[in-house]
Each structure stands twice: as C-alpha cells, then as structure tokens.
Amino acid sequence: PPAHSHSDWIGPPDRHSHLRPVIFHVPPGESALERRLREARQEAQACNQRFWARHNRAFRQEKEEFIYSRLKAKGLEMRDESGQKATLNAEEMADFYKDFLSKNFKKHLQYNRDWYKRNFTITFLMGQVALVRALRWLRGKKKNVEQ
Amino acid sequence: GLFVWRLRSAGVRQVPCQFVHLCRIANDRLITFQYFNFLKRMYVTQYNKDLSQRAKPKPDSVVSPFHELQQLDQEKKAVHKISPVSAVHQSWCETSGRNELREMKSAAGTEDSVTAVRAESKEDRQWKEMKLRLDDLPGILARLSKIKLTALVVSTASAGFAMAPVPFELTCFLLASLGTGLASCAANSINQFFEVPFDSNMNRTKNRPLVRGQISPLLAVCFAAACGVPGVALLTLGVNPLTGALGAFNIFLYTCCYTPLKRISIANTWVGAVVGAIPPVMGWTAATGSLDAGALLLGGILYSWQFPHFNALSWGLREDYSRGGYCMMSVTHPGLCRRVALRHCLALIGLSALAPVLGITTWTFPLISLPINLYISYLGFRFYRDADRSSSRKLFFCSLWHLPLLLLVMFTCKKSVLEKEDKGDLLGESRERAMEIRLP
C-alpha cells in the first residue's frame, strides 16, 4: 500500500489460511483508545491466521494420508497409468470427513469461543472510537460556528 | 461487450434450464407467481452452474483458493426474491458470469479468451484500500443482507398472507412484507458478522462483503440494527404485536441459536427448519391477527420442506463442512441425513391432505398436489437408497420447483372467502332476529 495512504489496506486471501491480511494505518495522533483497537485487530488477525493455516494444512495432510492408505488397501498406486493422481470418490471420502470433524470438534469449540469474544471486543472498540471521533468533529464544528 | 461475453459464456449450460423455466413462466397465471418463478429460474440456473462445477473431478493436490470448487450456501432456503427485478437480474448475471469465469479458469486451466478472467483474478490478488465508497454501498448492503434469500423469505410470508381466510388488505400486506424483509436483512447481516473467518474458508461464501473488507463490522452491526429495529417496530405497530413478536423471535432464533449451533451440534438443521417455517406463519398472523391451525399447517409444510432441500444440498458439501468445522448430518450421521429427508418428503403428503380438513383449501388440493409430492418422495427414496451425488442433486433441484408449485396449487385451491362470509352473514342475521324477539 502507498505510504501516503490514510486508510487500512486489505490484501488477497492467504494461500494457507484463506484469510485476507490487513495492513493497519497508524495515524500520527493516535489516541490510546485507537491504539487499543488497532492492537486488538492485529492480534485477532494473527490468531486467526495461525489457527486456519495450521488447520488447513493438517486437513490436507490427513486427507493425503487417508487417500494413500485407502488406495494401498485397494492395491492401487497413487498415480495411475496416465500419471494422474488417483482419487477416491465422495462416498469413500465420507469416512475421512466424519473422522476429521469429530477429531477437531474440541479445537473448533475453543476457537469459536475465542473468535466470538474477539469479534465483539473489536466491534465494541470500533463503536467507541467512532463515537469519540464524532464528538470531536461536533465540538470542532461548534468552535467554528462560535468563531 | 464484456458483459455480453460473460452472459454468453454463462449461457451455454443454462439455456436449456432457462427455456424450461420460461415455458413454465408462460403457463403461470398469477403475476406474483410469475415473479416467483422468474426468480426461481435465476436461482436454479445459478445452482445448476454451481453444482455442475462440483461434478468435475476434484484435483487432489494442494488447493489454491482459485481451484476450490464453488460451494452452496447451507443457509439458502431456496426460492427467490422480489426486489426490483432488473437490479437483481443484473447482479445475478454479473456474479454468475464472474463465478463461472473463475471456475472455468481453474477447472479447465486453458486460456480460451481468458482476458476477462485474468483481469478479474488480478483484481482479486491486488491490495485494496479499506475505504467505504458511497456508490458501492447499495451493492455491498445487498450482499450483506443476502437480498435474494430475503426476497425468498418475503415471498413465503406473502404466501402465508395470501392463504389466510380473510379479505385481502393491500396496506397490511405491504407493511407485513416490508417488515419481514427488514427483519430478514437484519438477521442475515448479523449472521455474516459472526461468520467471517468461516466464510473466508468456504468457496461460495468467500466473496462476502465482510470477508473482503468492503465494510467494517461496526457498520454491519449498525446496518443490522437499522433494519431490525424498524422492521420489528413496523410489524408490531403497523400490523399486529403477534407478528412483531414472531419476527423478533425469528431474528433471535437465526442469529443466536442457528448460527452458533451450526458448529456445535447437528440440531442446527432442525432449528434452521423452524426459522424457515416462521415467515409464512408471520404472513398468516399479519392477515388474521391470530395463530390458527392454518398458520401452523403452512409453517409445518415449510418446515418439512426444509429437510429434503437442505439435506440433499449438504450432501455435496461434506468436504467443506468437515474442514470448516460445521456439524452437519451429512458429515456425522449420513444415514440419518437421508432418513430424515425421506421422512419429511412423506410428511408433505400428509400435511397436504390436512389442508382441506382444516378448511384452508378444498379437497382438490391434496389430489392435485399428490403427483408432485409423490415425485419428491420418490426422489427422496432414491436419495435414501443410493446415497450418491446424482440422487442428492436430483432431490435438491426438485425441491426448488416443488415448493413454489405447491404453494401455487394451494393458492388456487384456496377455499373461497366469500363462501365463509355468506355462511357467517346468515348466522349473523338469524342471531339478530333472535335478539329482536327477546327484546321486550
């Protein structure tokens, strides 16, 4: 993002986590409240990124392992004659999906709780910041009118 | 030029579907249901495209966002919207065209006239300023409120209103529809507010406004409040308190029960079915002011319909649900998933037979609706027995036209209000005469 920009910039989805990273703009006269908000957002972003990157990687890995083990049990190779990667159909994969979901259930519960808390905190802080800015703007207008 | 090209590329698979639905539209008599079917056609063709893309063999290698197949929204309760048709049509064409292009690129990997695709994906890969532009705002809010789904919800509420055995009042109808629409917008916005990281990870939902950073969470919440509060107030004060209470309850049920429950237990599907069943009940109570058996029957029909619709849909999304951490029957209890779908297809037959018993329709309704209910039950049985993608797709697509057709037939078989009024008048007259005799 350009150096002179006054707003945050959001980028393309990350390859592993599929989340879009945000670069936060630090205004020169940042108040304590605004800093708290920015730090909360940065922390949430980092936390989300860690979680999803790890989770998606685990999914891909476990899926590969599952396919490999199933193909081996069937006596097939990972790649068939044409060099294409062999796949299992949806019904065979269903066992894997069910397994994966139940294995990660607790992890998801924990993450949900964390995410909801962070989301509410950030939105609440945003509200506070917006309110303070609005009051400041009104006070500025009043001063102009008086002058 | 680009727009036309997009349409053409999107058109190839969709022309036969569109033609079939155009024919269906030509046969419809009522204007409201014409809109209904037009929107359903758009909906069906979009889903057709989505699902036909899913049919391609899934590449097993490391998946980049552009390679993932498109997913279908588990919340979409089928049927469509009544917003300004041209606006919806435009946005549909654009989004379906764009999505189609993206899919074509990833699946085919070829460069056949891909300049538009390149531009589109390049745009996606760029860094964007997080500044709200006022001219983008209507589009953003439309996507935030899931305006197509909202239109669907409003049309089911209108169906409830139309079926109520009272003379039709236009102002009441409009107020009820508007209030329901606003409530639905609010609920959908809050849902998106809660689900940002999960939506980012599912291909269908990854272009939502909050995921893309086009709007801040604060603004999303404010918008939800700005829709929800006036919507419920409109229903409570402009229609009646019962409808308002149902609207508020439905928002609560959807945002605070269904949305979090999706990640905790498979019970979310039943809660979601109730959420879908409430709008027609609201339409009925808006017209009559009371919760009669008829309202509950209409709600019951929509409740039962949700299961074959959603269970068939979710059958094709098992991978994404598993990875995203969503607890859905299709992943955890596949047998139950199919059993429930079949069970509720059969329940629809029973509920349709109940309609004349409760005096909502004449006896022609269960007779005429029997073939369509039997057909969906047959597809439900096939899904139950075969448990594969093709049977789930067939069931899903059947559910898309089954509901509007059923409601249309119901409306045409509605028991005439005049009949009831005449009987009522006679009773009134005799009562008056009796009173006169009693007076000294």
From TrEMBL, chain A:
It is found in: Mitochondrion inner membrane. GO terms for cellular component: mitochondrial inner membrane. It comes from the Eukaryota. Pfam families: COA8 (PF10231). Keywords: Membrane, Mitochondrion, Mitochondrion inner membrane, Transit peptide. InterPro entries: COA8 (IPR018796). It is a peripheral membrane protein. Transmembrane segments: none annotated. The keyword Membrane applies. GO terms for biological process: intrinsic apoptotic signaling pathway. Belongs to the COA8 family. This is APOP1 protein. It comes from Climacteris rufus (rufous treecreeper). The lineage of its organism: Eukaryota, Metazoa, Chordata, Craniata, Vertebrata.
From TrEMBL, chain B:
It is an enzyme of class 2 (transferase). It catalyses: heme b + (2E,6E)-farnesyl diphosphate + H2O = Fe(II)-heme o + diphosphate. GO terms for biological process: cytochrome complex assembly; heme A biosynthetic process. The chain crosses the membrane at residues 242-261, 346-374, 394-413. It holds the Pfam family UbiA. Belongs to the UbiA prenyltransferase family. PANTHER family: PROTOHEME IX FARNESYLTRANSFERASE, MITOCHONDRIAL. This is Protoheme IX farnesyltransferase, mitochondrial. The gene is Cox10.
